[in-house]
Design brief:
This protein is an all-alpha fold. It has helices spanning 4-7, 23-40, 46-65, 73-79, 87-111, 117-126, 135-146, 151-159, 170-198; strands at residues 16-17, 20-21. The protein is built from nine helices and two strands. α2 runs antiparallel to α3 (46-65) and α6 (117-126) packs antiparallel against α7 (135-146). The relative contact order is 0.17. Keywords: Transport. One of its GO terms (molecular function) is ceramide 1-phosphate binding.
Length: 204
């Protein structure tokens, strides 16, 4: 088996066409991102994982019910437009916020190799999810940020081969992570623009 980012679906491999972002492959990549929090090794992040998983499930449920109208994320949201309860549209909106938090946090860590994860994730949270959270949830996230592992330990887990083979080099991990994050960032920004232009987040 290979290092973590080579074992999960990369956002860099999610097809994005004129019609939009491929729904099923996007969700597969999201599941890989949820697993990344296991490497952070703190129960404090279970609230983040639970939230991400719940929103992935909402999108899968919608896709399974209306596969022909849900091939891309854009088509899925568009098809739910006239409905009273837009469960998948709301689920995707929150999923994108969670992805943005994870992406920004890891981009902070990648941009400054001397920075520990706790400040990198705190800054990521402040630039993404924090504005949407109430006092209680902010407190939960504050605890989670403080529970981040040491940078060295996390990157070692990213590089490790669970089958016992030689770990990947730091250069390989950095290259894979940078590619993964750039693609994730592009998808999140694309979908945020789509929501803003179409007013899809209104009333949710």
């Amino acid at each position: 088996m290979a290092p973590y980012l080579e074992r999960v679906k990369s956002f860099a491999d999610v097809p994005v066409t004129d019609a939009g972002v491929d729904t099923l492959q996007f969700l597969e990549a999201c599941e890989g991102l949820v697993g990344l929090f296991d490497l952070l090794g703190s129960a404090a992040f279970s609230v983040v994982q639970s939230d991400l998983r719940g929103n992935i499930t909402k999108l899968r449920t919608r896709y399974d019910a209306f596969p022909a109208q849900s091939g891309t994320l854009e088509q899925l949201v568009e098809s739910e437009k006239g409905e009273k309860k837009r469960t998948a549209t709301e689920g995707l909106m929150w999923l994108l916020r969670g992805l943005s938090f994870t992406c920004k946090s890891l981009q902070n860590a990648q941009a400054d190799k001397t920075q520990e994860l706790a400040p990198a994730f705190t800054k990521g949270y402040e630039g993404s999810l924090k504005q949407f959270h109430n006092f209680v949830v902010k407190g939960v996230f504050s605890v989670a940020m403080k529970a981040c592992p040491y940078r060295k330990d996390f990157y070692e887990k990213l590089a490790a081969d669970p089958a016992g083979g030689a770990p990947a080099s730091q250069e390989t991990v950095d290259a894979e992570l940078d590619k993964w994050l750039a693609a994730l960032d592009a998808i999140v920004k694309r979908m945020e623009d789509f929501y803003a232009k179409g007013g899809y987040g209104k009333g949710l």
